[in-house]
């Protein structure tokens, strides 16, 4: 995978967000993506890629995650720990 500056910055921001949510019961994927979009409004990374980055960071740091983003069929919540 080619890592440009923006991708590396987004990866670090995602990991920092996950680490900041360690003490919460779980990380909400929808809120995490919203946080990155707020922090980095010019971010061109897709929501799907952000979801993958957050999922990887959650797994690496043992943070439970709720995949609560909207799907094609509506809102579908999946909690994984």
How does this model look, in words?
The structure is a single chain. With 81 residues, the protein is α+β, with helices and mostly antiparallel strands. The chain has one domain. It has helices at 5-20, 29-39, 47-61; strands at 27-28, 65-67, 70-71, 74-75, 78-80. The strands form 2 sheets. Strands 1-2-5 form a 3-stranded mixed sheet. The termini are far apart.
Low-confidence stretches: none
- Tally of individual domains: 1
Q: Mean pLDDT, nearest integer?
A: 83
Strand-residue proportion: 5-15%
Query: Secondary-structure element order, as H and E?
Result: HEHHEEEE
> What is the spatial order of strands in the main beta sheet?
1-2-5
Distance between the first and last residues' Cα: 27 Å
Biggest pleated-sheet summary: 3 strands, mixed
Helix content: 40-55%
Give me the count of strands.
5
Summarize the structure in short.
This protein has helices at residues 5-20, 29-39, 47-61; strands spanning 27-28, 65-67, 70-71, 74-75, 78-80. The protein has 81 residues and is α+β, with helices and mostly antiparallel strands.
């Amino acid at each position: 995978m080619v890592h440009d500056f923006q991708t590396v910055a987004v990866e670090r921001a995602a990991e920092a967000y996950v680490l900041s949510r360690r003490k919460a019961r779980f990380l909400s994927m929808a809120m995490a993506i919203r946080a990155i979009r707020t922090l980095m409004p010019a971010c061109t990374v897709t929501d799907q890629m952000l979801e993958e980055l957050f999922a990887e960071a959650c797994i690496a740091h043992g943070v439970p995650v709720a995949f609560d983003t909207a799907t094609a069929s509506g809102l579908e919540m999946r909690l994984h720990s």
